[in-house]
Amino acid sequence: MYLRFRKFMKGLSSRSYRITQEGAFAVLAKAKEAEARGKNVIHMEIGEPDFDTPENIKRAAMDALAKGATHYTPTPGIAELRMAIAEKVSADLGVNVDWKNVLVTVGCKEAIFASIMSVVEDGDEVIYPNPGYPAYESVTAYAGGKPVPLRLSESNGFRMTPEEVNELVTNRTKAIIINSPHNPCGSVLRKEDVKGLVEIAEDAGAFLISDEIYYPILFDGLKHYSPLSFAREDNVILVDGFSKRYAMTGWRLGYAVVPSGLVDPMTKLLNNMTSCPSQFVQYAGIEALKGPQDSVRKMVNTYESRRNAVLEELKKVEGITYLKPQGAFYLFINVQKVLSRVGMSSEQLVVKLIEDYGVAVLHGSSMGSYGEGFIRISFANSIENLLEGISRLGRAFSSMLSQ
Ligand SMILES: Cc1ncc(COP(=O)(O)O)c(C=O)c1O
Predict the structure, then answer these.
(1) How far apart are CA 336 and CA 328, in angstroms?
(2) For residues 63 and 48, what is the distance between their CA atoms, to the nearest angstrom?
(3) 207: which strand partners?
(4) Which long-range contacts (CB under 8 A, 24 or more apart) does 341-347 make?
(5) How far is the CA of 67 from the centre of ligand 1 (A)?
(6) Whether 183 contacts 243, CB under 8 Å
(7) 3-state SS class at 104
(8) In tens digits, what is the pLDDT along the chain, a chain of 403 residues?
(9) What is the CATH T-level fold of the domain 55-290, as seen in this structure?
(10) What is the pTM of this model?
């Protein structure tokens, strides 16, 4: 019997070899392991708010649990939450979103996965920012598409400009992915960038997938622009979530606002994946959107103060260059000079920084091939810890540069 079965063991699907996972989790594991050995480590690697979820949101979840919200819901989410999302998106972006175009997901990550899987097929090209959030490239490859990286560079402020995107468009371009404010660069697209990108996607007959998960986390009074506000065609997919601005990473709640033609196929995909997000979590989501927003403003102000403190401290560090982040909570630092002096990759540098200097950062290559030569630091830590972390980086780099 076993012998008969063995001939059917033909191995994994080829797509299983094309999927990758986020490097930040692996760095966190390394840092934790060093801590378990008694090492003191300052954490600047993780892209997760260090704040607790606001009290009113936690209370709404507990009330919902007490009332028995422990069941399945319709796959696209409970109507009340879809309406609350449509209302908030419409008000914040100055558009008119129909709640039936809102699909609630298990984190923004599921919205990204389901969007790409629903529109990309074999050989389709997808233009995405590199460095950028790893799922764009990984899921495109998993779907059988061809990831087409747009190299973000310091010289254009790490922005994905319409001119550069235009050069990459071919008749196989199926989707263009944008992310503003940007992880890991902290860059923000300008109004004319977003308008230009909308035009390019429309001309190419391509979907424009806009990841706006950091949209309220903007500094220096900057304004957020979404392609939804400028689109004339039904080709924009907005993906977003509650993780960052409401400090709700562990709740796993996100959403997509999709063109009408995508509602049904994407709902079927979500149904096969997760059936629905947890019912009591969806009630917490309603409170997050409809309750007081002062905790969001407070967190954004704190990120901005931390950014300013970090920028001040970085002036003392030799051998690096960086741009002032305009949003999100990351700073992307060019460490090429240090790397070439010590003959290391950014990934090797990260291990050395943890082991020898007690500071954890994320290697740029984990955010895409064009992230090599950089490290990302996250402001998700207290000002005191961030300053200590930067001063450890400073000691490390000055000792490496003097070798
Ligand atoms: C740009 C970007 N998009 C999406 C996500 C995923 O967020 P979620 O926790 O809602 O799945 C992240 C998380 O780090 C992110 O940085």
Answers:
(1) 23
(2) 26
(3) 175
(4) 341/400, 341/401, 341/403, 342/400, 342/403, 345/372, 346/371, 346/372, 346/373, 346/374, 346/375, 347/23
(5) 30
(6) no
(7) strand
(8) 555 555 556 689 999 999 988 888 889 999 999 999 999 999 999 888 999 999 999 999 999 999 999 999 999 999 999 999 999 999 999 999 999 999 999 999 999 999 999 999 999 999 999 999 999 999 999 999 999 999 999 999 999 999 999 999 999 999 999 999 999 999 999 999 999 999 999 999 999 999 999 999 999 999 999 999 999 989 999 999 999 999 999 999 999 999 999 999 999 999 999 999 999 999 999 999 999 999 999 999 999 999 999 999 999 999 999 999 999 999 999 999 999 999 999 999 999 999 999 999 999 999 999 999 999 999 989 999 999 999 999 999 999 999 8
(9) Aspartate Aminotransferase; domain 2 (3.40.640)
(10) 0.96
Q: Is the CB–ligand 1 distance for residue 57 below 6 Å? A: no
Q: How far does residue 48's CA lie from ligand 1's centre (Å)?
A: 9
Report CA dihedral (311, 313, 314, 316) to the nearest 10 degrees.
140
Ligand 1 mean position, distance from CA 108 (Å): 6
Determine if residue 245 is left, alpha or beta; phi over 0 gives left, psi from -120 to 50 gives alpha, anything else beta. alpha
CA distances from 130 to 153, 160, 235, 251, 297 (A): 9, 9, 22, 28, 30
**Which ligand 1 atom is at minimum distance from the Cα of 241?**
10
Length of the chain, in residues = 403
Parse the chain into domains and list their residue ranges.
2-52+295-401, 55-290
Residues 246 and 49: their CA atoms lie apart, in Å, by 9
Q: Which two tokens stand for residue 24?
A: 């930040």
C-alpha 216 – ligand 1 centre gap (Å): 14
* β-pair partners for 321: 334
Residue 109 Cβ contacting ligand 1 at under 6 Å? yes
CATH code given to domain 2-52+295-401: 3.90.1150.10
